[in-house]
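Look over this record before class:
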Amino acid sequence: MRRALLSRAAPMAAALLALALPAALAGPFHLRFLAEILLLGTAVMSLDLLVGSGGLVSLGHAALFGTAAYAAAVAALHLGGNLLLVLGAGTGAALLLAALMGVAIMRSSHLFLLILTLLLGQIAWEVAFHWRAVTGGADGLRGLPPLSLGPWRLDGPRALFLLAGGLALAAHALARSFVAAPIGRALVGAREQPLRMSALGYSTARIRLRAMLAAGGIAGAAGSLYPFLNLYVGPQSVHWSLSATMIIMLVIGGVGSLWGAFLGSAVYLALQTYVSAYTDRWQLFVGVIFVLIVLLLPHGLAGAAARWRRG
């Protein structure tokens, strides 16, 4: 019993320490950079629920993330930056879109699912780009009010980092519970043996819908906080290219490993931020690393770390 409790407490203690050290030591730029890693990593982790457990590769996941970001930004501009209001508006909008996407992909798979999610994501981008009265069009939305919770302002880099870290921990716990729950196991079964699952009385369409709702809710919560890192949100946040970037992050970190999503986002954003300061061809480095990961580490960095830990 004591060993089981220690094995559960150790990862949580390590995660809290990983949040406490940067919060105490890092400067404003690095705190915002780490917050971006945590928020995008949370969105990538939600994508892993679909890809890793269900084999449902989506090119429309950025639409969930970006729609939440827009909804949160619009709510903040009109009603103020209350944290609970912003989270509720963004997550609710993402859940609504996830329900629509889930209904559309309930009976799709493989290439048809990929194309369908791409088209749905492109529709979301068209709305964000052309509905200038609400979304600001190509200029996006700027000048957002700072986040607040009651009398406390949450606009400083340290507060935003801790918010992102708290959200990442809560989202990871929720995603882990989903994977371990019967619905998560049924999702894996629907991926591996869809005919057998149907013969046993399971509705693969409903399983996929529930998975999309879970992924949409987590991605929406992350997207709700994302605009407040730079007090801006633009149409690139819903573009399919961001969905492709999330897939790259997921593969680098390790498909099927929830915490690997944060590794993948950290590697990608570090290359984007630091290598791009020296060359415009930073994406070449991303491509090389991606190919090496696929060839040499098919389970990603998280899989390699797990093998190293086991000896």
In short: Residues 299 and 306 are 10 Å apart (CA to CA). Residues 28-54 form the longest helix (27 residues). The chain has a mean pLDDT of 88. Residues 27-238 form one domain.
